[in-house]
Amino acid sequence: MYRALTVTALCAALATPALALDFEEPDPADLVPAHFSAADFARLDQYDLYDVTLALKRGRNIRLADCTPSQSRAIFEASYDQRAPALDMLRTTCAG
What we know:
There is one protein chain. By secondary structure, this protein is mostly helical. The chain contains 5 helices and 2 strands. A two-stranded parallel ribbon has the order 1-2.
């Protein structure tokens, strides 16, 4: 009787941490939209650009206006340091 109770308590104690892993906080990179218009891109602040850059580093494809994924990546990477050259790059390379 005591052995069954001990085994049951041990199994319950070992299963509890496994259940707790399901309740993780969402990753900010997962919350980034997959497409931005030119107007949305112009309104992004540094914190939003950080989340986009993080999502790009983690392998997400994020499109910007009518750009290809590689052009979008280059524009987002350029915009993290300075916004004006990135906006010029958007105007010249894409039909945004």
